[in-house]
Each structure stands twice: as C-alpha cells, then as structure tokens.
Design goal:
The structure is a homodimer of 126-residue chains.
Chain A (H helix, E strand, L loop, with lengths): L12 H14 L12 H8 L3 H13 L3 E4 L3 E4 L5 H21 L4 H15 L5
Antiparallel strand pairs in A: 1-2
The structure holds a DNA duplex (30 and 30 nucleotides).
Chain lengths: 126, 126
Amino acid sequence: MFIEIDFNSDEALYLQLRNQIILGIATDQFHEGESLPSVRNLADIIGINMHTVNKAYTLLKQEGYVKVDRRNGAVIAVDANQALTLEEIRRELQVTLAKSSCKNITREEIHTLVDEIYDQMGYREI
Amino acid sequence: MFIEIDFNSDEALYLQLRNQIILGIATDQFHEGESLPSVRNLADIIGINMHTVNKAYTLLKQEGYVKVDRRNGAVIAVDANQALTLEEIRRELQVTLAKSSCKNITREEIHTLVDEIYDQMGYREI
DNA sequence: AATAGTGTTATATTCATCATATAACAGCAA
DNA sequence: TTGCTGTTATATGATGAATATAACACTATT
C-alpha cells in the first residue's frame, strides 16, 4: 500500500485518494479481485476521516473501478465501459494538448511523453 | 468569440473560462498580440460577474498565456516556459493514462486519439 | 480639464463543498 | 455474541465559488 497524500495540495483529499488508487490499479499494485483496506482502516493509516475515504470509494464504485459488498469491502473489479471512458479521456486530453500546444510542445514530444509514462510507470496493457 | 460555458457543470466557471481561452489560443482563434475582451465586457457577454472573469484572466497571467497592461487589457502573449509546463503536462497525463489503462484502452488507441484531437481541433504546431 | 475606458483592490454576502465528528443501522463471518 | 464490513443520518467549522457594490490608479480620447 503506497498511497501518497499531499495535505498542502489544493486538490481535494478524496480526489487525491481516488487518483492514487486508479494509479495503483494501472500499475498492478492492486490486482483484479483484491480487496482494498476497509474505510476505517485506510482512514487510520493515512490519518484522515473515515467519510473522506468512503467518499473516494463511492466515487470509484460509480466510475466502475471497484465493486462493493459487505463481506470483503471494496474489491477491484474494473468494468471496461469504453464508450463512457473514451469521451472522458478525450475531453481531458483536449485541454491538456491545448496547453502543450500553446507552450510550443510538439505533437511528437507528446507521443514520446505518452510512451515514457507507459514505460516508466509500467501501466498494464492487455 | 466562441466561448461555451456550461452552467450545469460542476467545474468552476472561472476554470471553464480559462480552459476555453487556452483552447482558443491553441486553435488560433486568439492570435498572439490580440486583446481579449475587457473583464466587464466579457462578463456581460457571457452573463457572469466581472470578478469571475477577472479571476480567469489573473490565472491566465500567472500561467503565462497573457500579459496585462492598462491600455489594452489582457493581451495574448504566450511565454513558452517548457520546464514548468512539461511537468504539469506529465502529471495530468499520468492520471489520464492510468484511467485509460484500467479501462483496457490500449497505448496505440491513445496515440491515435492524440493525433485525432490534433487534426480535428487544428492545434497550432510550430 | 473632463470623460470614459482599462485592470486592480477592498469589503461583504450567499451558497456549495470539503473534511471532520459522533452515532447508529444492516449484513456477514467466526 | 462479537467483530468486522459498507452505509446512512446529522451536525459543525473551514474554505472556496460567485455574486454585488464601490472605489482606486492609469491611459487614451474628446
């Protein structure tokens, strides 16, 4: 369990936590079928409130990264609903690429950066 | 001036406005040296408060997309400080690519998507 | 000199969200 | 029964978003 929370960041704690868990899934730190710590447990580990963790878990459930039952808590179970996700990815990329274009970062540099991130982070590929 | 603000979005108005202007610069809708509308003028056009526009302009100034003087208001003047920007782009891409990886969107599909966005949006390339 | 247009600053208010706290409930397993 | 899950309810303090009114400093035009 490596979850880094920056208490000085202006990003909401529950969003940082959600993003860190998504990163954990992509890097196979959390495997399909594995349970995440309970909301109370993880709250104690990080040192934040139970409800903040619960908010992150609820969001992860809505977005289709985990499924929840009362026996095992939040279980990694990615449902690959590409239709919804691809539109979200497109919107995010549109803004990110607009920024880079304004700053004279080339299209080729973006392609290189994508490959660098994939290789350095070791994102799982089917 | 095509600026679309979604009043039902959960994204803050001043951030939407800032992103739309960055998109406008990247698509050469706003050219280097051109002035943006005054804060009061744009506020009237969109139908929001002057301070909300001012907040977006101040942020754009801090991020190096415009420079401001009292004669001509907010003038498009991109300073290409790549060092700072590249780190920001990397952080944003890390999370976006983690999401897509979880949803079984392949690396090749991302590369294709990047090219699609560049071509469809017509982002300026040096 | 006067007027009108810039961005900027100050102050205040309303509203929503974030993060916290305490408490209880329903379901499952040992 | 006991102890662990997620879930819900309610409340509170802090922060930020968006608004409103007002004024200030500077510049260009009349």
